[in-house]
Amino acid sequence: MLKKMVASVRHVLPQVLFLLGGVLLWQTLYEAKVWSPLLFPSLGEIRQSFITSFTVNKFFDAILYSLSLLTRGLLLGIGIALLLSGLSIISKSVYRIYNMLVSMFDLIPGVALFPLAILWFGTGEATIIFIVVHSVVWPMSRSIIDGFNSIPGIYLEAGANIGLKGPALVYGVYLPASFPRILSGIKVGWARAWRGLMSAEMVFGATSAGAGIGFYIQYRRSFMDSAGLYVALIVIIIIGVVVEYGVFRVIENKTIKKWGMYR
Amino acid sequence: MALDKGNAVRRVISILVVLVMLCLLPVSAGVAAQAPAVLNVAYQYGLAYAPLIVMKEYGMIQKHYDGAVEVNWQVLNSGVAINEGIVVGQIDVGAMGVAPAIVGVMRGIPYKIFSNISSQPHGLMTNSTDIQTLSDITSDKKIALVGIGSIQHIFLSMLALHDLGDAHALDNNIIAMSHPDGMTALISGAVDCQLTTSPYVFYEADIDNLHKVSNLEAVWPNGNSFIVGMASNALYDGNPKLYRALVEALAEAEAFIEQNADEAAGFLATYNDVSKEVMLSWLNDPGCSFSPKLQGAMSMAAFMAEYGFIAEKPDSVSKIAYDNVEGE
User: Among candidates B133, B95, B161, which has minimal Cα distance to B302?
Assistant: First the structure.
């Protein structure tokens, strides 16, 4: 028991020491007044801002709203990507057309679509979700299609041997065999969706349904609340870490690590 | 081995060279700072900045300054952007609304008001026949204004407090757009309302399907300060003669527009691409005035402190303005 505890502490020791060192360095730089306190607030100010952001400035509501927009966009995007990629396997022409579409649209940054999206959908939730879906669908489809293409032929032949065809083959062989690629596609999609969402919220401001983290950041910036900006960044990092360790690692452990496809 | 020792020595020497070069970088910046006086001035879109345009075109700062000075002018989209420029030292003098100025001073930006610049009429305009009063603005309607933290944001909050009883009632309806972009968006229907100032509010008043919801007179009477001039502490302390020249040049420009309205209208008309008669009618609007005297700034600061826009209000006008500034 103790051995296990010591082992896990030693496991995270480099990271913890690094972060502690960073915190000390921050406070030293602040005391030395290397930069204006507007650019470089003290740790005390940041801590104080952390408290006010949740008690006074309704930061928690902003976080929930951003996450709700993100989840909707992400699920919609993953669903579309899986559907269209699955169809691409079944039909050769769909594959060729979809492959071309993915290559074309993957490189369009979400920001470049803002002006058009505003004209089509107005400045409400629909536009933001559209941007998130755009950020997710193309990289995910690319990962899924590449994953499908890199399955060793022998698996497909084995599947055909036991009588799997069409959708059954997709579900039974293609998806599990290409799951490492699909999972990394989901991670990329998540990162891109998060970026698209933040930039959309900053440009569009609040919607009628609520105000997200991007709008919160803009508000802090406009009132020169640098400590508030750092708080927002820290919270975004925490969300990323929680998703990485709480969601993706768990999925990995239960699927690709268990199946021996990932060390 | 002899070869290894040579490599190690070479590595140490190259690291030392890089370190020395890095240390020389701030020195080179210091050397550049000894060049002739440079003044970086930033302002924004609108008729309120006319005195700066006059100063620019007639070289008034250079005239009042005893020595060589290079004045750089730039137009930015918002007072927030100018604040950021001053924090990083790229801007020395900025023209912005009273609100971003108060926010900046209370946040510790090293600057103060060196003069009032202008008062201008404002209007909350809309393209929607459904919107006749503030209470008709539902949560899905967008109000375009210069940005969060701008004086227009504070005006909107004052209106919201006056008409709806809650200063933050319309915060989530705001979408940040510069005056020209906001006007385009209002005309095209991309946004429902715009809180804007001259000359955009004049252009929009002439367009048939737009109408005014409120002219803000009830919360911000004519004559109250709108745009003020900010000068960095570095300028005030570091080059008092240039600071004096700046104050005098601005006063001269304001007097020129107020007293020689006809000639000023002719000059500004070409600048704004309108006829002289139209420009003269704008300058003669009761809400439009140019004067070095501050008015209403402390009451705006009190409002902002009471409703959470700033942490605490300034205890006296000398906190936000230099000694040469009259009024409050």
Answer: B161
